Amino acid sequence: MQPSNRRLSAGAATAAALVSAALLLTGCASDGQSAAKQTSSGASHVKIMLTNDGSDDACALDHTSAPAGPITFTVDNKSATGISEVELQSDQRILGEKENLAPGLKPVSFTLTLDGGKYTVYCPGGKNENIAFTVTGKATAPKTGSVQTLLKQGSKEYAGYVDDQIAGMVTGVAALKTAVDSGDIDAAKKAYGQARPFYERIESDVEGFVIPGTKANDNAGNLDYLIDMRASNLDDSVGWHGFHAIERDLWQGGAITAGTKSLATELQKNVNTLASLAKKLNYKPEDLANGAAGLLEEVQSEKIKGEEEAFSHIDLVDFAANVEGSQQAFEYLKPGLKKIDASLTKQINTQFDKVNAMLDTYRDPAAIGGYETYTPALKARDANKLSQAVQALQDPLSRLAEKVATAQ
Amino acid sequence: MTDARQPADDPDSPRAGEHVSRRGLFAMGAGGLVVGALAGVGGTMAAHALEPDDNGEAVDASVSYPFYGTGHQSGVQTEPQRHCVYMTFDVDPGTTTSDLQTLFARWSAGIAQLMAGRPVGVVQPSRASAVAQDTGEAADLEPNALTVTLGLGPALFDDRFGLAAKKPKLLAELPALPSDNLEESLTGGDLSLQACAEDPQVAYHAIRDLARIGRGTVSTRWTVMGFGRASAGAGQSTPRNLMGFKDGTRNIRSDEEFEKFVWLGDDEEWMSGGTYQVARKIQMDIEIWDADRIGDQQDVFGRTKSVGAPLTGTAEFDTPKFTEVRHGEHVIPQNAHIALAAHENNGGIKILRRSYNYTDGINQYGQLDAGLLFITYQNDPDHFARLQKKLGSYDRLNEYISHIGSAVFAIPPAPEPGHYLAEKLFS
């Protein structure tokens, strides 16, 4: 079984090709408008008017061509309630855009320096979603844009981060095994809390691996299952394994038995197998974006509900690790992303700051893993607050993959 | 969509001229299959026989109300639809005044789309890596008379957004009222959205997608999903609440009464044409109520159960005679619900009731958890407070009900085309 990131990028490429074909069939009326003229500042100005004609929303340009150079697009939504964003695209790549458009708000602008060639103004929700826009003058050969370079560089560096976490996981699990073998339950609990975050930071990158020679749909060979299965996804035919089986023994059982020791031995073996499979992977920018969003889904679906650490209640430790892993992926994309969509970048930054500031209020150096125990009482009190903060981050973050997948 | 609805002349009634023909269409649609089946027997007769008995209760899914240029927001004087989802929100810390403007503009555009039966953006984006703008569950459903009404709570006018000077004159948190049993988690909010429609999925979709548009700016606070209208509009028969009694027989109906008791004239200029909304979540002990003898139930309300006549009359709309005494006792007990609430006994005060029945499933005691989402509109929130002060103190109904949720909001007027709700607040 391939790691999930590879599958995803293949899917995205196919989709882009399909869209490309569909657009070629879409004729775009130009209405014969004149070319925009350059002003004294050197920039040409193009107005994009969004209006409703009584039944349909429509997108119209005052000029459908402009000379090569800086071009300022000003978007004014007069009455088109169904259009909330406009993009300028070249060959399916987003070059510039404005979001949060609605009637009554002031017009907004973005400026791009464009070479000669064919472009498309994309108005999702409009009667005419795609409008051809031509830039006249010097047409340069398609180049590898700096955005692509930045994104690729970031993805390469992110691979190093993943490798670091894998190494930490191997060390952490070895320490857990040593503590379990020693029979010291307090030391084992502490080691458990220290080992967990490494896996949680890169969970979305390392799931989907199987023990070589086993089938993808067999939990007995599924490393994610064997390492991180919980009571809620227990496969009776395969039984308890991994971190949470040890957690159960330490907290619910309150004792280290021979069974606990063999669980720790098995966990170490599986983690080492995973490390050998997952190291030195290559990531595409959209893999980072999808991974970042995936980790937040983990927070929402498992941690806030307290399902992940049902016995130790160290869910906030995993929560913080998921958020950290998600933010790391985002940070490595940020230099390129800023150039694609500065406002989305800022929005995601702000929401990460909010989530982190909130998590800081739960820090407790004396607690296992460094965060307050997520007791049922704490959950009842704060789950709503935690969930809404994560959701407010998840929504902009979920738009990241499309941005980086379509970046020039 | 090409079948977008045109604005009606009268904002608060579905285009009067077409109303009948649309009902006719509905009847044909409903009978269509059967007509086909009976074609050999005589299609015309079959179609005629299958037309519903239209006493104003038939649901016409194609009805759409305009959002812009109607003066008042819809969802107030609009004939109550069958379903309603009500939700309040808190503005997130760190939100700026300009974020709030963007939210109101995006919500306004979204509401305009939804009320016209259109999605709030792309349901299925062309790029595989894109996230859909509209969540899609109402994609094949008609407008269903959806209205979405925005309210602004008192806390919005604190020092966060520099709006204190524009605070509507009479907007303030409700005072503590007798018998209040309010739960913090069901109380208050900076903003409210009331989405009512003939189809519950249309109403829910509206709230869901508007909450989604607002995410990052506002967080959800409390919500009630109302089913079955428990108040009547001008052209409607009086429905029943979950106690089985007709509710709102003496509700406000005429334009004159709306002008006098609901719509604002000389409040803050930007609120002209607006009103105030009070929302109360009233939990009913319906199982205990069901065990009460009919005589007592009727004394509690002051009306008969089946007809809904006042105990001093025989027909629903007979004027109650609160002073009538028989065998030395008031026929309508002085602490009956209708006696305490009547305008005759409250200095002429009337409030518009626009309530819905709700259920929240089963409570911790294994009893049915249900009640009334009691929404009122009035040109002075104190009118509600005055009535509730009296009802909370003396109403015989208090034995069976509990006010567990509460909030008050200013309802700004509808925007003109090209503008958004409460836009003038920021000028």
What's the layout of helices and strands?
The complex is a heterodimer of chains A (408) and B (427).
Chain A: H1 4-25, E1 44-52, E2 57-61, E3 65-67, E4 69-77, E5 86-90, E6 93-98, E7 108-114, E8 117-122, E9 130-136, H2 146-182, H3 185-206, H4 223-228, H5 242-253, H6 258-278, H7 285-303, H8 315-340, H9 342-360, H10 376-397, H11 400-405
Parallel strand pairs in A: 1-4, 3-9
Antiparallel strand pairs in A: 1-2, 4-7, 5-6, 5-8, 8-9
Helix pairs in contact in A: 1-7, 2-3, 2-6, 2-8, 3-5, 3-7, 3-8, 5-6, 7-8, 7-10, 8-9, 9-10
Chain B: H1 16-37, H2 39-50, E1 83-91, H3 97-115, E2 147-152, E3 191-197, H4 200-214, E4 218-229, H5 255-261, E5 275-284, H6 286-290, H7 294-301, E6 325-326, E7 329-330, H8 337-341, E8 352-353, E9 356-362, E10 368-378, H9 381-394, E11 401-411
Antiparallel strand pairs in B: 1-3, 1-4, 2-3, 4-9, 5-10, 5-11, 6-7, 8-10, 9-10
Helix pairs in contact in B: 1-2, 3-4
Notable characteristics:
heterodimer, A: 408 residues, alpha+beta, Immunoglobulin-like, A middle domain of Talin 1, 2 domains, 5-stranded mixed beta sheet, 4-stranded mixed beta sheet, 14% strand, elongated, disordered N terminus, B: 427 residues, 9-stranded antiparallel beta sheet, two-stranded antiparallel ribbon, 9 helices, globular
